[in-house]
Predict the 3D structure of the following.
Amino acid sequence: MKMLFCAMTAAAASVFFLSCSRTDSVDENSQIRQKLDFIADSILQKTGLPGMVIGVWAPQKKFEYIEGKGVADIIAQNPVQSDFNFRAGSLTKTFTVSLLLQLVDEKKLLLEDKISKFFPDFPNGAMISVRNLANMTSGIPEYTATPEFGSILTSDPLHQWHPEELIGLVKDRPLLFNPGTKGNYSNSNTVLLGMIITKITGKTLAENYNSRILNPLKLTRTVFPNNNFMPFNYMKGYETDLTPGVYDFEVSEYFDPSYAGAAGAMISNAGNLKTWVESLVEGKMISAELHSQIFMGLPIPDKHAATYGLGLLTFGDGYWGHTGELFGYSTIMMHHRETGATIVIAYNYQNPQNLPDDFYRKIVRILK
């Protein structure tokens, strides 16, 4: 009888502690959810931001948070839904560089190939490698910073840009530094990579994205557009019109996204970007040999990047991914290899003083 009693006591204790553990986990996750709600609601109230989508997945904590906040349309006042689409901006760069790395795996080119191999008339092309383009160390200036680009974009927002036209804006300008010696964020790098990909494959970027990434991963809500229209249900994107801090100028379909091209034209949603950034950082789309190289690079201070690797960055906190800004939208997607945590945030406005990067950092501290 005594042994039976002891066995029952041990079993009861086990159930008790298991119950406590589950209760503690539920309580902690409830507190995390409350903190995320509070921060998101505070941002909406203080900044004038119309809306946002926030996705947080922390498998070690058995925690998942995917919410739409605010409004997707300031006139209709319809609420943001968590599966709404948005322009992903520079998150597009991760897709483009991944296409490139797949071609490297297929022996179609080398990362150390000079871009003169593909563009013989490109000034200093014999000094710049494909790797320099992928990790932002080429020294090629930013085409969006040229007066010519701003003039055309302002006067003809639906102008359909060709990659050669974009690169033509900076092609003959001096390099900012010797390739490989510094990191400097420039969309020109990724547009050139897109041109290399189409030249090697003989297919459009859209065809390559679809066949090599979007279809295999079943990213059915991710689109590389060929016009200015937004597919699916989406958050409308806003900019300040005349009154600072008042975001009432809707730009969702105002510009033709070809001005961003391989560097920033992709459209997606939080669920698809979760799948994508996890596949990207975990190396599911490329060889192990190349995967070990994607985390190597130099700092890029203007992006607050501790390291900018091959098409992705880190702030030095263990998470890797990318940030994005495009007229009307700002985004971030990050994944932590060790903990498995993933964070995706999209705002439906663009303001350098209040990017989702700040919200992201607060989430990282909360999850610790």
User: Anything to note?
Assistant: The mean pLDDT is 93. The chain is about 40% helix and 15% strand.
